[in-house]
Amino acid sequence: MSPRPAIAEPRWARIFLCGLALLLLALFLLLPLAAVFTEALRRGWGPVWQALSDPDAIAAIELTLLVAAIAVPVNTIGGVAGAWCIAKFDFPGRALLLALIELPFSVSPVISGLVWVLLFGAHGWFGPWLQAHDLQIVFALPGLVLATLFVTFPFVARTLIPLMQEQGRSAEEAAATLGASGWQTFFRVTLPEIRWALLSGVLLCNARAMGEFGAVSVVSGHVRGETNTMPLHIEILYNEYQFVGAFAVAALLALLALVTLAAKALLERGGPRGSLAA
Amino acid sequence: MMGSSDQASIMPAAARALRRRHLLLGAAALLPAGAAQAQSGGGGQLLNVSYDPTREFYRDFNTAFVQQWKNQSGQAIRASASHGGSGRQARAVIDGLQADVVTLALAYDIDAIAEQGLIAANWQSRLPQNSAPYTSTIVFLVRKGNPKGLRDWGDLAKPGIAVITPNPKTSGGARWNYLAGWAWALRQPGGSPDTAQAYIAALFKNVPVLDTGARGSTTSFVQRGQGDVLLAWENEAHLAFAEFGNDKFDIIYPSLSILAEPPVAVVDRNVDRRGTRAAAEAYLQALYAPEGQALAAKHFYRPRDAGVLAANKARFPQLELVTIDDPAFGGWKPAQATHFNDGGLFDRLYQPGR
Fold first, then answer.
1. Is the CA virtual torsion B20, B23, B25, B28 positive or negative?
2. CA angle A82, A85, A89 (to 5 degrees)
């Protein structure tokens, strides 16, 4: 007797549902993506190159990479620490910590930007002190980094927590009984178990850090060539009727995101035991 | 630790190297960032915080001024600009954006900065012509051939006309649009504040969507093809003309419009702290000089300089222009309080989706 198929739905239903999913994917994901690249290349490679080699565009690209280069490592350390605490220990306030880690997901990006203005703006809580010491936080690099840190904080922790909870504590407990120190346990036992999920979280965090618009828009000040990140530069070009330029920078940003996703996909294929599915 | 396994080779070597460089860069940049920002103000840089439609003008002007300042003082300076809705830009300066000069859409927005003590209260009398080196007015941009026959303000309030204008709550340009319509209605035979209210209500009934800024409205009209008529800054209308070709649009000059005087000011507290006062004041003076006036005219701002205006006569048709100090308005503060503050006339007259 042949085994009963796992999925009992009729064939037409399966075809219909898969077709629907593919159609929606094409409509909502592939079509806009294709539009970005088509618009960018509408007048050939010359204008694209021109838009990307404009000093303001180069400044925006550098700033975007710099902000990501600061925000991603900080959030990687913070995310691992947070996930480690939540998955491996019981302590009062654990649920609160979990909720706090997820807070940036549920808060509007505009708020994520405004809080820094309220704290560090000229009329913010720390504004007078900062002005007295000639320090600029909002409308400068530190503000952009803070806003990005806030928005991208959950990515690493959220990727790690389910996996670490599933793995349980037995390996760490065994390590402890064999006399390993806390650091030894972390680097020799915990980290090798989570490294693929960690990389995946870092890549997602990086993609969001480079692409964030709302929060950085509030704290940027929009000074051309100085405090504009790539997403903000795209908006400016679009508003100046430089559509080819806007889409050229947009295509580069999309390309960075695609490379990130491709790297993640590659890692998932290489990762052991499909642990990245978490 | 992570690289010990052979699977690490899946992550390309270049990417690993890049990430390592990022880490170094990041560590190097994290702490001195605040200090570097503070020290960059030492005469080397001038920031002009401006409103939306001046982007193209100030790009040209900044290039010219950098050269002029170098000839004049021997100092190399970097002139940069930030653009956005006028009210929002004023807010950013109040919140600590380090503007050396502000060049905004209305005196009201500079007054708001002055009220916080960043600019001297008498700022408007420090420069000629109410501190407005150029003026502009509000015109109609219509589809080619003017298919709906829109000639004057009265035509815009007729049923079935779609009017594109930004939100007077957030956009300086939109307030000028509104006030120009109000002034026109008041001057019609039998005009009174009551008939003007009825006119504004009918006009805004024809507005399908209120964008937050002038540039957003222009994009709605020009790029997305919404509406029959765009109420636009004269220079915005000409820019749309230049960008998209004159075979798509016509510019209509109504019988009466408003004299918009976008003012400029040095942000005293910032320039004194950053040591940029000399450059900032020279920057604003240069706006009044013939070269600056010619650049303004090139970008379709009406120059104050009689000679430059005469040379560009064909660009700027004559029409009756009322000012904000007209008895109908009595200056920006009463106009703002009557029309645009929360609970003001605009809030009562505009009912979206009706």
1. negative
2. 160
Residue A43 has pLDDT above 80, yes or no: yes
Q: What is each CA distance from B223 to A242, B227, B233, B243, in whole angstroms?
A: 12, 11, 17, 11
Tokens standing for residue B138: 């509000």
Q: How far apart are CA B344 and CA B349, in angstroms?
A: 9
pTM as predicted: 0.80
Q: Which of residues 225-264 of A touch B (CB under 8 A)?
A: 225-226, 236, 238-241, 263
Q: Which of B23, B47, B52 sits opposite A223 (nearest CB)?
A: B47
Give start and end residues of each alpha helix (H) in chain B: 13-30, 33-39, 55-73, 86-94, 107-115, 153-156, 172-186, 193-205, 214-222, 234-244, 268-274, 277-288, 290-298, 306-311, 332-335, 345-349
* Over residues A71-78, mean pLDDT: 96
> In terms of CA atoms, which chain B residue is nearest residue A269?
B10
Please give the residue of chain A at the shortest CA–CA distance from B22.
A69
Predicted confidence at residue B148, as pLDDT, reads 93
Nearest CA of chain A to the CA of B57: how many Å? 12
**Is the CB of B13 inside 8 Å of chain A's CB atoms?**
no
Q: What angle do CA A31, A37, A38 make, to 5 degrees?
A: 80
CB contacts, 8 Å: B92 with chain A = 139, 221
User: With a CB-CB cutoff of 8 Å, which residues 110-169 of chain A face chain B?
Assistant: 117, 120-124, 127, 131, 134-142, 145
Residue ranges of the alpha helices (H) in A45-91? Answer: 45-53, 55-88
pLDDT digits (tens, 9 = 90+) for A255-278: 988 888 888 888 777 655 444 444
